[in-house]
Amino acid sequence: MIRVLLVDDQALIRGGLRALLSAESDIEVVAEAADGRAGVALAAEHRPDVALLDVQMPVMDGIEATRRIVADPSLADVHVVILTNYGLDEYVFTALRAGASGFLLKDTEPADLITAVRVAARGDALLSPAVTRRLIAEFVARPAEMLPPAGLDVLTNREREVVELVAYGLSNDEIAARMVISPATAKTHVSRAMTKLGARDRAQLVVVAYRTGLVTASPPR
């Protein structure tokens, strides 16, 4: 059973999300909160698999709530997913750096939301290819934030290639097809890269790839 925490200051949105998710036999909404501070407390109390957090909330926003959840070693298995609108890209960037596992747009189709919760609970990729490319395009326009690529020295050439493809939003199956390897091997390369770079999940690999200059605005052909 996938256990979910809902944190949004709009009761109507929380109610809609609860009804949608609770209708699934493998998903249970264990708690909900109207602000980030309460959300952090409930995360510590219930240890959900997935925490869906709105960005803009009273008392404590979703970014700070994400930061506190990620910083707590006892909550290492909680995957934070940010709920956002199209016009809040800057919040998305900050949320990813704070340790969010990914984000969902609030106009996401119900079926896609349910799938995303399951994907997040597994710790797999959550950013869709289209949205990831949009993020990367914004990321690479900010050279002042770039970091030296020295940290990538711990990766093999194969792992560097995999990280780059993850950053462009490719799934394990897509990576396998592009590199002519099995999906299991692709998954192994991704896992090893995350371990070596200290990334919580694939979303964090996107940040690393951007900040070290490994990716460019256009995906490789």
From TrEMBL:
Residues 148-213 form the HTH luxR-type domain. The modification 4-aspartylphosphate is found at D54. Residues 3-121 form the Response regulatory domain. SMART domains: HTH_LUXR, REC. GO terms for biological process: phosphorelay signal transduction system; regulation of DNA-templated transcription. Pfam families: GerE, Response_reg. Keywords: DNA-binding, Phosphoprotein, Transcription, Transcription regulation. InterPro entries: CheY-like_superfamily, NreC/VraR/RcsB-like_REC, Sig_transdc_resp-reg_C-effctor, Sig_transdc_resp-reg_receiver, Tscrpt_reg_LuxR_C, WalR-like. This is DNA-binding response regulator. It comes from Actinocatenispora rupis.
